[in-house]
Task: inverse folding
């Protein structure tokens, strides 16, 4: 809730809301005597959730990276994405096409070929994904070290 008693939201309906109740107004102190920022809830009906799920998974990000260079046929993409199955790649490319990230063109060849190309919307993800990739590469050793430390403690990850 905001100070005027209304729920705080973003420009996207259903995106954000405060979880504050009357006991935790902005500027008030928690039990530790400190002022706390509002607790934000990323609501279950937030439209960003399915979009993030569909474009920010491993195979989507890698497929978009492969297509950043030039349009590619399905099998060219598959060869560059070692470990992806035909079924998973097909699903991934369909989701990206549905979300406006790639276009699919049926080529008049025998046998019929299909080519995928980034749309302007898909290209707009290149810079953010490049930043995420650079962060991943620069922190990979540290992350692997932390994973080993965690595993050595015998803690299991449930999932």
Result:
């Amino acid at each position: 809730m905001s100070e005027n008693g209304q729920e705080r939201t973003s420009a996207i309906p259903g995106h954000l809301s405060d979880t504050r109740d009357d006991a935790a107004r902005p500027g008030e102190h928690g039990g530790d005597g400190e002022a706390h920022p509002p607790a934000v809830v990323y609501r279950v009906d937030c439209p960003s959730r399915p979009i993030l799920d569909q474009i920010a998974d491993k195979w989507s990000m890698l497929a978009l990276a492969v297509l950043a260079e030039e349009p590619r046929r399905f099998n060219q993409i598959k060869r560059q994405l070692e470990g992806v199955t035909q079924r998973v790649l097909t699903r991934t490319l369909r989701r990206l096409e549905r979300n406006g990230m790639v276009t699919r063109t049926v080529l008049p060849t025998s046998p019929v070929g299909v080519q995928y190309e980034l749309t302007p919307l898909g290209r707009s993800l290149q810079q953010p994904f490049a930043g995420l990739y650079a962060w991943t590469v620069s922190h990979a050793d540290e992350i692997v070290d932390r994973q080993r430390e965690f595993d050595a403690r015998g803690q299991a990850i449930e999932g």
